[in-house]
Amino acid sequence: MTPPEAIPSARRQELLEAAYAYALRTGLTGLSLRPLAEAIGSSPRVLLYLFGSKDGLIRALLARARTEELAHIEQLPTGELHETARELWRWLAADTHRGLLTLWVESYSRSLTDPDGPWSDFARDTVTDWLTLLATAQPPALRDTAPALARRTLLLAVLRGALLDLLATGDTARTTEAVHLHLSTHPESPPSQPCEND
């Protein structure tokens, strides 16, 4: 039998969008169905029917958050690696994305501390998403080399660290200056692979 949460319906989508807007405001930690249902004009029983369980609802919310994140990322202009990183940081630092990114950080950490729960693989999947974006900005001939992977991994670590700092402090100017300093002091292109005869 097909579980209710797998059946597409206009009402399910409507409630998912309303629940997502609620999660952007309140986060997912300690999410309770009763106040959520009251806030979005539904009932716990309806939510359980449409999403199967509280974990099913959380999984749907995480998928919705990832869909939005990917949609934003895919709209970013791509160019050289550092140019793409600057555009990505501009998006990360925008005030309008704070709710989404706070939810992302919460889900990322829960994925690490509760790997068997509804957050399972969220952190791993988002690392893959971001590394894939950065890879598209590297020269195709070098993209699959170890130095190129290390370079985009380092860049992702800098962006993620600066994002955590920004969300904690709200200091856009300082974190932006730090990201730009990193980009200006590290060469953009990874070195070519040495020849075997070198």
From TrEMBL:
Q: Where is the HTH tetR-type domain?
A: 9-69
What are the boundaries of the signal sequence? none
GO MF annotation terms:
DNA-binding transcription factor activity; transcription cis-regulatory region binding
Q: Matching InterPro entries, A to Z?
A: Homeodomain-like_sf, HTH-type_TetR-like_transc_reg, HTH_TetR
Q: Which residues bind DNA?
A: 32-51
On whether S-adenosyl-L-methionine is a keyword of this UniProt record, the answer is no
The protein's UniProt keywords, in alphabetical order, are: DNA-binding, Transcription, Transcription regulation
Q: What is this protein called?
A: TetR/AcrR family transcriptional regulator
Q: Which organism is it from?
A: Streptomyces roseirectus
